[in-house]
Amino acid sequence: MLFKAGIRANPRGRPKGSVGGRALALADLDRIAGLPKNREQRRLKLQEAHDKDPLGFFRTYIMPLLPKEGKVEVANDGIVKWGSLLGDEPGELPRFDEKGFPIPGR
């Protein structure tokens, strides 16, 4: 089949409901990672890495998961409260309850 200029190779696109190889691979990885024995192994390895080097653990595992623009509060009891600098409304910082959970916006 020869391609003509200006005509798409697949004008109908991907059929509805079909899934690509990447999505299938991610689903398989999610299933594997979610198995109880694998969750426990992961928890133990993370604990081991934390015990060995707490600051390195924070930099390697926690920082990449944090929003680029964030707010941190450390309460007197040592509870760390993470929040976005972007509150529920422009100019408003997120609010937390006494246990450190975010309070939904008005």
Walkthrough of the structure:
By secondary structure, the protein is of the alpha+beta class. It has 2 domains: 20-64, no CATH class; 66-106, no CATH class. Helices cover 38% and strands 13% of the residues. It has 3 helices and 4 strands; from the N terminus they run αααββββ. The strands form 2 sheets. A two-stranded antiparallel ribbon has the order 1-2. Strands 3-4 form a two-stranded antiparallel ribbon. Helix 2 (36-52) crosses helix 3. The protein is elongated and about 70 Å long.
Quick rundown:
This protein has helices at residues 21-34, 36-52, 54-62; strands at 70-74, 80-84, 95-96, 102-103. The chain is an alpha+beta fold.
What is the topological layout?
Elements lengths: L20 H14 L1 H17 L1 H9 L7 E5 L5 E5 L10 E2 L5 E2 L3
Antiparallel strand pairs: 1-2, 3-4
Features:
2 domains; 106 residues; alpha+beta; two-stranded antiparallel sheet; 38% helix; elongated
Whole-number count of domains: 2
Cα shape: elongated
The number of distinct β-strands equals 4
Which parts are unreliable, with pLDDT below 50 for 5 consecutive residues or more? none
Rounded mean pLDDT is: 77
Biggest sheet strand line-up: 1-2
Radius of gyration: 23 Å
Could you give the distance between the termini? 59 Å
The major sheet is characterized as:
2 strands, antiparallel
Strand content: 5-15%
The structure class reads: alpha+beta
Secondary-structure element order, as H and E?
HHHEEEE
State the helix count: 3
